[in-house]
Amino acid sequence: PAVMRLRAYIIRGLNISGVNRSGYGNPYLYFHLGHRAVRLEGYKQMATVEPRYFRTEEHDFSFPEEALLEVGLLDWVDGASDPRIGSTFIDLEDRWYSPKFQEYLKAGKVPIEYRPLASDEQQISKGSLEMWVEVLDAQDATDVPVSTLYQPPPVEVEIRIVIWTVREISRKLCVDEYGEERPSIDCLARCAIDCRNYVGQQLKEQETDIHHQADTDAEFNWRFVFPRVQVTRGIGLDCFVQLSLWESYTLRRPTLLCESLVDMKNYCKRVANHKTMLQIESEIALTSKQLAEQTARDAEEYGAAQQRKDEEDDDDDDDDKSDDDNTWAKNHPQKAAGKDANPPAALMKVLVQVLPQTEASQSDNKVGLGRDPPNQNPPLPYPSTGRNWQATLPHVAGAIDGVISAYSSGRRCFKCLVVLLLLALPIVLLHVVKGDNGCPYIMASCADASTCAACNLCRSPAEQVSRFCYYSAFGTGDGTCAGQKSKRDVCNLKLDATSCAVPPTPPGSTTQALLLAVCQNPMLPQQTVLAQGGGGAAKDGASKR
Q: Is the dihedral of CA 241, 245, 249, 255 positive or negative?
């Protein structure tokens, strides 16, 4: 028998069904050629329906005894025998004696085949293998080089989405805890990407700033950027973008109002293949399951009420009933169209841009998130509504408008002025009229013995009384007179003093010892007293003479 050389090139599997119920398997290749079997368990692909192998198998075989080749996939199972997914058989003898195959082989252009994989148990296709085979004479095989299989590199694209405005927000979504519709809400928009091939540095979920006091329309002018979405030729791409509208609160998390899911797969593949930017501007309808259920309930209630009315009104003819049915259909188009009709909860105007990453990374094409620089392609203006202080602080704005309105209305202006004067007069008097301690009534004095005994002992009588005053509502004797450095220096207390209390005097101790224990300069109170006493004696002597 002749010795032949087989080269089998396995590129990938397509729509491979796993043995388990989930449909996803862990497929790996196996070959049977004659009495030889090869299992490539080390090249298994986990949990996939499109395994990629790019594998070349080369074997010598006896011709024509070993001319039947079996190629198949096994489903890897941890700790158990691996069941067979499916296989395909190739008669190598037919290939060798085919004149057309010999022409392809000599030209080096053997066509790629898509071999269906059949299962013995179910006799149905379990997917297919993208592959081709070469049959060569073993002596001449060295003259024919082996074709190199390599996986094509991924092409990266960047997704940019600009949210301009949201209009016709359903008022049925803007309800309070009692179910009553509110006149306005604070809302924000979010954009999230769901894509396994997204490897960018930006967050997968991004959100806009808050539009305050939105009634039925909201303005954002906000850009979302998702760079480095990898698109590989021959590999399936699942890429979705979720656009949603949320109600924002001050003290709790936002709640979802409505949303929409956009499939970006075809856009990304088109840009990756043609290397040109794709730009689409459209108005997307946002839906809400809660709104759809509420609309269905309202339609059912209306239909039941209309049916009862028709049953009671036996005198109406068929034409009148037909008119009633038409009126009901006009008032409830969602219910008339079918139970699954989902009315739009809002309409979001967006701009979608998909461009190659190489083009997006150029300096003149770079953009920032939101309205951050570089703000270009297109430039996003600051919203003209929902961002001023009146919208951010509606209660304060209402109070100021009330004051302005009262001021501009003559008699109310005079009343407000009188009220303000009556409120301000007691405050002014408390700061002007002084009490027995020499300080205004609203203030206390550190020089008072009842407030700070240590300061009363160590202070200099020559100091101004106003330097010992402090607001009693904002401090105590210990915290202010002994705790603050400025008051401690005025009171002549020690630098480490923390209390206004004077330590008890032991029996037999002198005043000088007490001053040394409490005062920063123990001679200051005595010098002041002696000076004052000497002055008094001099005056007495002069009067006697």
A: negative
Which residues have C-beta within 8 Å of that of residue 420, sequence separation ≥ 6?
none
φ and ψ of 95, to 5 deg: -65, -45
Round to the nearest angstrom and report the end-to-end CA distance of the chain.
Answer: 159
Sign of torsion, CA 418 420 422 424?
Answer: negative
Our measurement of the distance from residue 253's CA atom to the centroid of its chain's CA atoms, rounded to an integer in Å, reads: 12
Which residue pairs, CB below 8 angstroms and at least 24 apart, start in 363-371?
A: 367/160, 367/223, 367/225, 368/223, 368/225, 369/202, 369/206, 369/223, 369/224, 369/225, 370/208, 370/209, 370/222, 370/223, 371/221, 371/222, 371/223
CA-to-CA distance for 40 and 52, rounded, in angstroms?
13
DSSP lists the bridge partners of residue 165 as 219, 349
More confident residue, 189 or 313: 189
pLDDT single digits (tens) 30-51 = 999 988 899 999 999 888 888 9
Q: What is the DSSP string of 247-274?
A: E--SSS--EEEEEEEEE-HHHHHHHHHH
Q: Is the omega angle on the peptide bond into residue 381 within 30 degrees of 0, that is, cis?
A: no
Query: Strands, E, within 306-357: which ranges?
Result: 344-356
Beta bridge partners of 386: none
User: Which tens digits make up the pLDDT trace of 335-393?
Assistant: 444 444 567 899 999 999 999 999 999 999 999 999 999 999 999 999 999 887 665 56
